[in-house]
Amino acid sequence: MKKxxxxxxxxxxxxxxxxxxxxxxxxxxxxxxxxxxAGLKDFAYDFTSTADEDVRDExxxxxxxxxxxxxxxxxxxxxxxxxxxxxxxxxxLLREFAREAGVRLLPDWMA
Length: 111
Known about the structure:
The chain is an all-alpha fold. The chain has one domain (about 15-110). About 60% of the residues lie in helices and about 0% in strands. It has helices spanning about 15, 20-25, 35-50, 55-70, 75-85, 90-100. The chain is globular, with a radius of gyration of 15 Å.
């Protein structure tokens, strides 16, 4: 009887994103966020202010799903690439997290 291949545990958002960078840019927005940079700073503040790993996972999943829902796989890849640049994290890890969250992406060999 063959042993089933053991799956790696799901990725956690805090292991995917660049924690040090998020702490560095974290800033609570005053009023409405009007720019991407203000939104990222507010996200970083909220992300680094909670100790609940599940909440952090949901926060990142929501950004990835909102940015990629109803788009092509190619557009989703572009969003992931840009998010990795903005968050200063490894694209490969962000892709894996996104895929686990249900984001439709190109096969690895095409990305």
